[in-house]
C-alpha cells in the first residue's frame, strides 16, 4: 500500500487542512511534473493529492495505513432519517425533470415553473440539512484529531463511522446539486 501521507510529506493524522495538502502537492509536483523532471513519479503525487484532499477518502486511507483496514460499515443512525428525505426529494426531482424534458409546449412549461418552486425549495432544504451534517462530521474529525496522538485505537471506531457517513453526505450533496442544475437548465 502506498502511504499518500508520506508521498506528500504530510503528518499522518485525521485533520489535515486543505491548504496544507495543496501546498505539499504544489511543492512535490514542481519537482516531479513530467514537463519539469525526468523519471519522476508524478502519478503517485497526483493520486496522493486526490485522496488526501477528500476528507472521507483521507480518513479511509489513514485507517488502512494505521490499522490495516478502513472498516466497512453502514451509515450512522442520525443519517437514517436524512436518507429518507434525500431519497424522496431526488425521486421527485427525477420525475419532474423527466416530465419537463418531454414537454415541448412553452405554455405548459411556464405552468410547471410554479409547481417546481416547492421542489426547488425542498432541494434547498435537504441540501442545507446535508451541509449541516457535513459540518458536524468535520467538527467530529477535529475533536478526534486532538486525541489522535494520545490514543489512536480510541479513534478507530468513530473515524470509521465518520468516513462512511462523510462518503454518503458528499454523494448526496453532489446528487442534490446535480438535480438543481438540471432543473435550472430546463428553464
Which key terms come to mind for this protein?
187 residues; Helix Hairpins; 2 domains; 7 helices; elongated
Number of strands: 0
Helix/strand class = mainly alpha
The parts where pLDDT drops under 50 for at least 5 residues are none
* Topology order in helix (H) and strand (E) letters: HHHHHHH
- In terms of DSSP E residues, the strand content is under 5%
How many domains, as an integer?
2
Approximate shape: elongated
Short description:
With 187 residues, the protein is an all-alpha fold. It is 79% helix and 0% strand.
Structure characterization notes:
The chain is an all-alpha fold and 187 residues long. It has two domains: 4-53, Helix Hairpins (Orthogonal Bundle), CATH 1.10.287; 77-186. Helix content is 79%, strand content 0%. It is built from seven helices and no strands. The longest helix has 43 residues, at 106-148. It is elongated and about 60 Å long.
